[in-house]
Amino acid sequence: MTERKRVYIWEVPVRLTHWVNFFSIIALSVTGIYIGNPYLHPLSESSFTMGTMRFIHLTAAYLFLMMIIIRLYWAFAGNRYANWRVFLPLKKRQRQDLGGATRYYLFMSKKPPYAAGHTMCAGAAYFVLFLMFLFQIFSGFALWSYARSVPFFHMVLGGWMLGFWNVSAIRFWHHMVMYFIWAIALVHVYLAVWLDSAEHNGLMGSIFGGYKFITGKEWE
Amino acid sequence: MGDAKEGSIYDSLRKNGVSRREFMKFCSLMAATLALPVSFAGKIAEALEKAERPHVVWLEFQDCAGNTESLLRSSKPNVAELILDIISLDYHETIMAPAGKQAEKSLSDVVKNYKGKYITIVEGAIPTKDGGVYCTVGGRTAQDIVKEVCGNGLATIAVGACAWDGGWPAASPNPTGAKGVKDVVSGIKLINLPGCPANVVNITGTVVHFLTFGSLPLTDSMGRPLVFYGEKIHDHCERRAHFDAGQYVRQWGDEGHRLGWCLYQMGCKGPETFKNCPTVRWNQSTNWPVGSGHGCIGCAAPRFWDTMTPFYRRLENVPGFGVDSTADKVGAGLAIATAAGLAAHRIIRATKTKGEKPEEEK
Ligand code: SF4
């Protein structure tokens, strides 16, 4: 086994946004599914189920929005593992890694995509995921701003969508993209567990503590 | 006050057996419908005592005559409906006595003799494809007629969804190129009263507003009067408490339906539709669709036939996935398929990489 160093990879804002997103996406999904299709039967005469669900949904939505803003800021202010460049295959090295990781995942190569931060595959996937997050925010606020007098910042956050798209289609895609996000999340967890065991680098632990154990030969 | 002008609206109402009391009640109703302070009831009364009966022509194109029906079908017409009766309805294909050439003459007479003074009410969409041949009256296309009649009048009221944005004749794929008045004639004073059908109280309210203030009511970006279309149905619905409480009708005729619970799960489009139905209601304010246990279908919303369907579900189906594929079923299927794919991947991985060590980084 090669010599390994303990390196600080995920700074606090990265881990914070990761976990708050984790919980808010769960809350948003559970309440969102209820809002779209109220599956619970009324609990009592005086229940306020839909009201509560919508309250949680909106609160979680604002929290989620804040996290996206923080993470976006950190893509410019954070360390190089958090930088926006790791999400886009701009360099040749990155494109090679994209192919290498894909081959490994499809059992076409036996070389795990060693990376100190994100592998390029993960980076690209998170970029798509980030676009989905933005879409959920915009479409969510578009649905929320379907009212007579709308606060200005609701218009900015999504109300503009109503200008060229009808509310039913927006709702439809607000539902669909939630499932896309679930699918990406499943793949994300699966690959993280796998790479953790294949690379022995403490990947799973790193999202809690921030440190990975790396050989120093990983790219970037 | 018996000093109403001969031939004025109030005068004709009186001749139709409307008492002063009923008349004042109507004026208060109009003030309320137009969201004016109560004191305006007097102003409206004054205006109606003086105003001459306006000349009105009612044009019908690609329509179902539903707006006409809604106007005529009241068993005991109230003042609001009477007002539309006693205005000088000089031309109305469904209810006028003359036919053929004579009928067309009454229309051209109004256009000639009262140029710039009459009100046009349009019902139905106007086809524009292939030179507009899909709807002709007396040998002329709807497009021609509407341009001439609306263009020479004082103001136009487009009643119903079809005259507004094409309604269901314009539903995809819109074979006849149907359009609403606003997209066919430009530069006219136009008020849109969408809905299937338009509410008689709102039509009357528009006329009364015009007679009282000499102007048309303030409209939103889609040309609908804000007083009638400013509030969401959902926010004024009597079933709203059940919505917030989580009490929903799940099947027609179930316990919740009998108890008058919210129709959200039955596809009610009240949360997406702006109109004053819950407050103004229909047939002498007896009831309205949601009140009688049927969800709102969003008939006053833009392109409702395309955007508010399916009427009995919350969401559209996923295209290409069969009739029963709601977004949620397909989406959940996708998530399950992903999980299954990952499980399969895990199994392949276990067999392929058994006992192997991954290559180290070099
Ligand atoms: S019946 Fe329709 S409009 Fe009324 S509260 Fe329920 S969803 Fe809203």
Topology of helices and strands:
The complex is a heterodimer of chains A (about 220) and B (about 350).
Chain A: E1 5-8, H1 12-36, H2 49-77, H3 92-105, H4 120-144, H5 152-157, H6 167-199, H7 203-209, E2 211-214
Helix pairs in contact in A: 1-2, 2-4, 4-6
Chain B: H1 9-15, H2 20-33, H3 40-50, E1 55-60, H4 66-72, H5 79-86, E2 88-92, H6 100-113, E3 119-123, E4 126-127, E5 136-137, E6 140-141, H7 142-152, E7 155-159, H8 160-165, E8 178-179, E9 190-193, H9 200-213, H10 226-229, H11 240-245, H12 255-258, H13 277-280, H14 304-307, H15 327-352
Parallel strand pairs in B: 1-2, 1-3, 3-7, 7-9
Antiparallel strand pairs in B: 4-8, 5-6
Helix pairs in contact in B: 2-3, 3-9, 5-9
Bound molecules: iron/sulfur cluster.
Ligands, deduplicated: iron/sulfur cluster
The parts of chain B where pLDDT drops under 50 for at least 5 residues are none
How many helix segments of chain A?
7
Count of DSSP-assigned helices of chain B: 15
CATH superfamily of the largest domain in chain B: NADH:ubiquinone oxidoreductase-like, 20kDa subunit
**Unreliable residue stretches of chain A:** none
What's the CATH topology label of chain A?
A: Fumarate Reductase Cytochrome B subunit
Approximately how much helix is present in the residues of chain A?
55-70%
Roughly what percent helix of chain B? 25-40%
Just give the CATH class of the largest domain in chain B: Alpha Beta
How much of the polypeptide of chain B forms β-strand, as a percent range? Answer: 5-15%
Q: So what's the overall shape of chain A?
A: elongated
Fold-level CATH name of the largest domain in chain B: Rossmann fold
Distance between the termini of chain B: 104 Å
**Assigned CATH architecture of chain A:** Up-down Bundle
Radius of gyration from the alpha-carbon trace of chain B, in angstroms: 27 Å
Q: For this entry, what is the oligomeric state of its chains?
A: heterodimer
Largest beta-sheet characterization of chain A:
2 strands, antiparallel
Order of strands, main sheet of chain B, comes to 2-1-3-7-9
